[in-house]
Amino acid sequence: MDESLSHYPPLPADDLSRNLSIAQIGQDASLPHIGLVGDTYTITVTGAETAGRFCVVDMHIPPGGGPPPHRHDFEETFILLEGQMEATFRGKTMIVKAGDTINIPANAPHRFHNVSSSATRLLCICSPAGQDEFFKEVGTPVATRTTSPPKLNEEEQAAFIKKVMALAPKYRTELLKEA
């Protein structure tokens, strides 16, 4: 072995308790589809599958959709597969289109919003994982990747906001005021 490399520790052994996972979004009925803030989020890779290293969420954002301004203490990467969206990062707004990838550093204020007339589809990778569990805890299960969540009346909306505000700190997330 090259002496100059001897100070690097060896790779750990293969962890045989972990298995390959595959998400076949059009065929796998077990994938959770979560309706949240008018969007539909399908969790394709959970934190449990990656030993907490990251999670992957396939996001369907209809026209006008997207979460309010927020920040969290984990990295978030978006890969736009279809459509375009408006992304606001630390107060600066830009248009991001299909084929683009953006990475939001931990703790940075941001939001994304579909200002187009067509649905946007993007993959969201959060590292470390946890956002997948947050979505499952605050969202509503829906039938498919593109099923809209149920419309909330004023009372249901108030209860939803109260629930999100109570759970956000548990998932290292802070909702911010509109700019």
From TrEMBL:
Pfam families named among the record's database cross-references: Cupin_2 (PF07883)
Annotated Gene3D superfamilies: Jelly Rolls
InterPro entries with a match to the protein in the record: Cupin_2 (IPR013096), QDO-like (IPR053146), RmlC-like_jellyroll (IPR014710), RmlC_Cupin_sf (IPR011051)
UniProt GO molecular function: dioxygenase activity
Residues covered by the Cupin type-2 domain: 59-126
Source domain of life: Bacteria
Entry keywords, A to Z: Dioxygenase, Oxidoreductase
Classification via PANTHER family: PUTATIVE (AFU_ORTHOLOGUE AFUA_8G07350)-RELATED
Protein name: Quercetin dioxygenase-like cupin family protein
